[in-house]
Design a protein that fits this description.
single chain, 88 residues
């Protein structure tokens, strides 16, 4: 079973906020643009993930922090490509 300090737990934890932001702002509120910047909600979610990484490393949950970091990096790349394609 999964332990408290697991990369898989970190991956799942790291995907919660970006997926929630994507669900809210692309499916429920598709025409809402904050400050004329469509990527703001996703960047806020990724910023909160960076705070979660910091907390994980402070609490010596290195594997969980590594999982959150992998998920955050993957979401950053995904959002970069999605917005680059959508804006050009």
């Amino acid at each position: 079973m999964l332990g408290k300090n697991s990369v898989l737990i970190g991956l799942l934890l790291g995907l919660i906020l970006p997926l929630t932001a994507w669900l809210l702002f692309s499916k429920l509120y598709p025409n809402v643009i904050i400050l004329n910047k469509p990527a703001i909600p996703y960047l806020v979610a990724l910023g909160i993930n960076l705070l979660i990484i910091r907390l994980c490393y402070k609490k010596n949950a290195d594997e969980t922090g590594r999982g959150v970091m992998i998920a955050t990096f993957a979401c950053m790349l995904l959002f970069l490509f999605v917005f680059k394609i959508r804006l050009t």
